[in-house]
């Protein structure tokens, strides 16, 4: 039986991967790198800023002005979410269910701590989580297992007893490598065969996962 749940944030709790995509492609057009940019965006989902920078330099060369790309896309992203911070269906329902049953719950997001806490505060979700681990708290981002290993330690639960709710290949690989049971709720991309082989379960939405939780959770 499962004893704890760790959630990714972007693409799982918030419909922000769609907004990130818009901001990234806007910036790619401005910088003249829009051609063949789709694989770059998909590969970066789940990475923190430092690992994303390394990826960009490996693809576009050591002289690529990544800081310009990051600043421009970040400004565009925050301009867009200032208008709207869309949540995925079922967020309040699933977190309320877990909270009512005192199931340890953590957040493991590659996004910076400042942005994560802002999103949670803005949507009144902060108190649902026992702990929050962010991209600037770890050395290596997903698909490295560090962030999920840290989250499991924070909520004092063995990885094998935790499910990780993710939307991306990098996130699934990270959770699996940490020894957790990865659950995928696809957002920007469906799982390929390699990713599907790592999954504990796959659902279409948080509400579908919630329907199964009574049979999964040890509470």
Automatic annotation (TrEMBL):
Pfam families assigned to the protein according to its UniProt record, in alphabetical order: HAD_2
NCBIfam families the record matches: HAD-SF-IA-v3
Protein name as catalogued: HAD family phosphatase
């Amino acid at each position: 039986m499962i004893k704890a749940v760790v959630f990714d944030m972007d693409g799982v709790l918030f419909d922000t991967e769609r907004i990130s995509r818009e901001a990234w492609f806007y910036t790619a057009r401005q910088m003249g790198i829009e051609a063949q940019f789709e694989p770059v965006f998909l590969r970066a989902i789940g990475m923190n800023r430092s690992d994303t920078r390394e990826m960009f330099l490996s693809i576009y060369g050591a002289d690529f002005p990544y800081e310009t790309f990051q600043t421009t896309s970040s400004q565009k992203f925050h301009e867009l979410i200032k208008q709207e911070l869309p949540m995925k269906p079922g967020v309040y329902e699933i977190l309320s269910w877990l909270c009512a049953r005192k199931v340890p719950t953590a957040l493991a997001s590659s996004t910076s701590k400042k942005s994560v806490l802002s999103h949670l505060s803005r949507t009144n979700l902060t108190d649902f989580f026992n702990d929050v681990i962010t991209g600037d708290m770890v050395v290596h981002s997903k698909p490295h297992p560090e962030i999920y290993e840290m989250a499991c330690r924070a909520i004092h639960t063995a990885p094998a007893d935790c499910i990780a709710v993710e939307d991306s290949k990098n996130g699934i690989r990270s959770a699996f490598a940490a020894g957790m049971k990865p659950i995928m709720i696809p957002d920007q991309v469906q799982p390929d065969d390699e990713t599907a082989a790592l999954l504990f379960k796959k659902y279409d939405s948080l509400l579908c996962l919630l329907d199964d939780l009574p049979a999964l959770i040890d509470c």
